[in-house]
Amino acid sequence: MNPHKLLYYYNGTNLQAVRKGNWKLHIPRTVNDQPFWCKVGDKRKGFVNLSEYKLYNLKEDVSETKNLSLQYPK
């Protein structure tokens, strides 16, 4: 992946995350923001609210288990 290009992750028209190089930033979201996540009438099934930004170094943590957003706040 070109380290100067950004990759945007969307659910419908809602931005979910942004990736640049080895870094991926997840954007806070609620079930009410996600009309395309699940079939109509079943929005909550399989969805996890995200109340804070989450930052991952995919080179070192491909499974996205270590949130680094507090260590790298900018």
Automatic annotation (TrEMBL):
UniProt source species: Saccharophagus degradans
Pfam families found in the cross-reference section: Sulfatase_C
Alphabetical list of SUPFAM superfamilies matching this protein: Alkaline phosphatase-like
Name of the protein in question: Uncharacterized protein
